[in-house]
Design goal:
InterPro entries: DoxX
Distance between the termini: 62 Å
Helix content: over 70%
Radius of gyration: 22 Å
Shape: flat
Keywords: Membrane, Transmembrane, Transmembrane helix
Subcellular location: Membrane
Protein name: DoxX family protein
Membrane topology: Multi-pass membrane protein
Length: about 190
């Protein structure tokens, strides 16, 4: 019996050790970025599109909807007239928040400045969740709760999964199939010649 157990343990270690060696350094970051892109890239781009102003230079002037989504309490106080809101700091917050919804997801997806972009997205998701709870006053069912047996809470459950997907490239890097890896390779080659 102990021989059978030893054989199974050896087989287990052999199979999963080989998988770990074959995927080490490239797979987890790439897989996390792929999951992020397939699930959240279009979500954030579409959300950002609802926040830009009209016209060719609309990305320089967020819409009233951007102010209402990002600063809901302040918009209530000014009767939804964003012209009454000072640019510094509030307009700047809305402008940077709008740009973040375009820039950070693309950086994570293509693997450029991936660790910083992933950290930025994690902060974005945390702030977005805070604003939804305190500013938009979403109901308890939407917030959900951890360990409640119901995985459909949009904030507690789904956004925790979003953060986990972003933690992988932040902590493990983007993997070999990324612009970070390409630029790092170029930089190392260049350093050897100088």
């Amino acid at each position: 019996m102990s021989t059978l157990i030893s054989l199974l343990v050896g087989l287990y270690h052999s199979v999963f050790g080989t998988l770990e060696r074959l995927t080490n350094g490239w797979f987890l970051g790439l897989a996390a970025r792929f999951v992020f892109a397939s699930v959240l890239l279009v979500y954030f781009i579409n959300s950002g599109l609802t926040k830009i102003g009209s016209g060719f230079l609309g990305f320089l002037s967020p819409s009233d909807g951007a102010y209402a989504q990002i600063l809901p309490r302040l918009m209530e106080q000014v009767s939804y007239d964003s012209s009454q809101i000072a640019f510094f700091p509030y307009g700047l917050i809305v402008l940077l928040g709008t740009w973040s919804e375009f820039i950070l997801p693309v950086l994570v997806t293509i693997g450029l400045f991936t660790r910083a972009a992933s950290l930025g997205m994690i902060c974005f998701v945390v702030v977005m969740s805070y604003v939804d709870i305190t500013g938009h006053h979403v109901e308890a069912a939407t917030i959900g709760a951890l360990f409640d047996g119901n995985p459909s809470g949009l904030i507690a459950d789904q956004r925790l999964m979003w953060v986990f997907v972003l933690l992988v490239p932040m902590l493990k890097g983007p993997g070999l199939v990324s612009l970070d890896a390409l630029l790092g390779s170029y930089y190392r080659k260049r350093e050897r010649y100088y």
